Amino acid sequence: MGKNKIIRNVSIVCFCVAGAMFALGMVITFYPGAEKSFYIFLCLLLIVSMILSPNKIIKIISVILLIISVFGAYNGHKRGVEYRQFLENRNK
Question: What is the structure's pLDDT at 29?
Fold first, then answer.
């Protein structure tokens, strides 16, 4: 097995796992703020897939999913901050 084939396979595995996680992230309701870490990990998988993939279609799809995942991570961070503020105000 050549080095290029191993790199291509790693890229495809990262892309497939990222695609499954992306679909899962769209339907699961998380603990407020927890999706930030989920989407950050997803972004890392997509970046690895984008860098290692020789296929332009996978790179384009990875970029699109990466942009959406960055917004998901930001939204998760924002929801987490709001939830922590809610808990602090509730306990007063």
Answer: 66
Cα gap 79→84, rounded to integer Å: 9
Residue with tokens 């050549």: 2
**Phi-psi label, residue 79: left if phi above 0, alpha if psi -120 to 50, beta otherwise:** alpha
Q: What residue spans of the chain are helical by DSSP H?
A: 3-27, 35-52, 56-90
Among 84, 18, 14, smallest CA distance to 51 is for: 14
The pLDDT value recorded for residue 1 is 67
Residue showing tokens 């309701």: 29
Q: How many CB atoms lie within 10 A of CB 45?
A: 22
- What residue ranges of the chain have pLDDT lower than 70? 1, 29-30
Q: What is the DSSP letter of 34?
A: T
Cα 46 to the center of its chain, rounded Å: 7
